[in-house]
Amino acid sequence: MKKVTQQQLSEAVYDELRRAIFTGELPLGQRLNIPDIAETLSVSPSPIMVAVRRLSQEGLVVIKPRVGSFVAEMSPPQLKMLMQVREMMELFAMQNFNPSPMTMDHLDHAVVRMNAVYSVNSPDAYWEFNEYDAQFHETLIGALGNPLMKDMYRQLHFHFWIGRIILAAEGQSSKWRASRGDHDRILDALQQGHIPLAAKILGQHLQATRLLIESYIHAINESQESPPKTEVRGQ
Q1: Alpha helices in the chain (DSSP H)
Q2: Residue 129 contacts residue 95 (beta carbons within 8 Å)
Q3: Which of 71, 86, 119 is the last residue of a domain?
């Protein structure tokens, strides 16, 4: 992890811990050793604890009283259920889409940034792309003008990140490039006022993600059901 300066210390520590979780530097389920992290970042434990509480509110960290703080985990069934909720919320938002010029500007900005990241061959490209992908989808939800749904979706979106971390750990992170053009097509349809077409493309985009998750879950189930291999030794 990178060392941070005193400027905007709490925010900088939060950003660094969040980045470390997203990139797998702090693995899912790992206990957060506050003194060790403070030493690594060259700060006192206080801003670390503030950042951990904030990450806990977002669902990325689990605080267990008298035990410690841990990077959140997610079981395959939870991941599948989360994707189902995401599909329902985003398709409802798209079917009732009521864009403003500001909404369209935000969508366009997110797509421009995703395309810029796409052209960069960087180890962090997957995570940078997903930052703008999150902005794109949150903007679709926000266009409903329903603050409650927006807050619910934003809270869930931190759990979506855990799903992305799991898929990255399973070697699926390279597949984000295949979905890049979906956002361009969704934006083009919205700019032309073709809401049903945009909803159709969004549905296909979400379905592809769900199938990726289901493939991951199927592989896990198969590995658990397969009998252990026995070693045959020669006489």
Answers
A1: 9-22, 34-41, 45-57, 76-95, 101-118, 125-142, 147-169, 180-191, 195-225
A2: no
A3: 71
Length of the chain: 235
Residue 62's domain is classified under what CATH number? 1.10.10.10
Given its phi and psi angles, is residue 110 left (phi above 0), alpha (psi -120 to 50 degrees) or beta?
Answer: alpha
Number of Cβ within 10 Å of residue 34's Cβ equals 15
List beta partners, residue 63.
Answer: 69
**C-beta separation of 183 from 111 below 8 A:** yes
Contacts of 6 (CB under 8 A, 6+ apart): none
Number of structural domains the chain divides into: 2
Residues of the chain under the 70 pLDDT cut: 1-7, 121-124, 167-178, 224-235
The residue behind tokens 């898929």 is 167
146: helix, coil or strand? coil
CA 92, distance to chain mean position in Å, is 20
Q: DSSP letters along 109-125, please?
A: HHHHHHHHHHT---TTH
Q: For residues 199 and 160, state if they share a domain.
A: yes
Q: Which pTM does this prediction carry?
A: 0.75
For 28-63, the pLDDT digits (tens) are: 889 999 999 999 998 999 999 999 999 998 888 999
Q: Which of 64, 66, 38, 67 is nearest to 50 (CA)?
A: 38
